[in-house]
Amino acid sequence: DAMVIQNPRYQVTQFGKPVTLSCSQTLNHNVMYWYQQKSSQAPKLLFHYYDKDFNNEADTPDNFQSRRPNTSFCFLDIRSPGLGDAAMYLCATSSNEGAVETQYFGPGTRLLVL
Amino acid sequence: GQNIDQPTEMTATEGAIVQINCTYQTSGFNGLFWYQQHAGEAPTFLSYNVLDGLEEKGRFSSFLSRSKGYSYLLLKELQMKDSASYLCAVLDSNYQLIWGAGTKLIIKP
Known about the structure:
The complex is a heterodimer.
Chain A: E1 4-7, E2 10-13, E3 19-25, E4 31-37, E5 44-50, E6 53-56, E7 64-67, E8 73-78, E9 87-94, E10 104-105, E11 109-113
Chain B: E1 3-5, E2 9-13, E3 18-25, E4 32-37, E5 44-49, E6 53-57, E7 60-65, E8 70-75, E9 84-91, E10 97-99, E11 103-108
Parallel strand pairs in B: 2-11
Antiparallel strand pairs in B: 1-3, 3-8, 4-5, 4-9, 6-7, 7-8, 9-10, 9-11
């Protein structure tokens, strides 16, 4: 089945220790997104890619970086995680080649910072 | 600024009908989405409206009025598994998805 896959589902890291979250997709969508979602809040867009064109949201901290080496994979790097970065990180994909840009989400990675 | 408003929490009874409202103010409009999100899981797509009117999909229906900046999600024959958060999101003129904070729906037997 075509899908969006995120690994790991749960990630524990230490304060200040770099961590990388990964996302892959088999939908062949050209757009990929990274969201941060804290409890009972709306997802907050961190980055998105149209193909390889990187778009950084204005309020995304410099502590967050992203890489998209090819169509299928996208990575979120948190250089120095703080306690406030504990959240669910959601990867989503969409295709802007049709009439509707529905976003399809992976299962998310829940990050815990100790 | 851009704003999506929906109630924080609603309670309904199994087998009943519930309507979750969403009002929006965005820079441009290219459609409105409803997503369902169970606790600790990712949002899953429910519906998309870009024209005024009602879209029905099984037990779920979604309504849009662009002139009023208003939508609702109607859930019929509620089941316990419908307990979840329901997020309203609008695609603005830049094709950015503006999200509401979600409505937590609690279903009681």
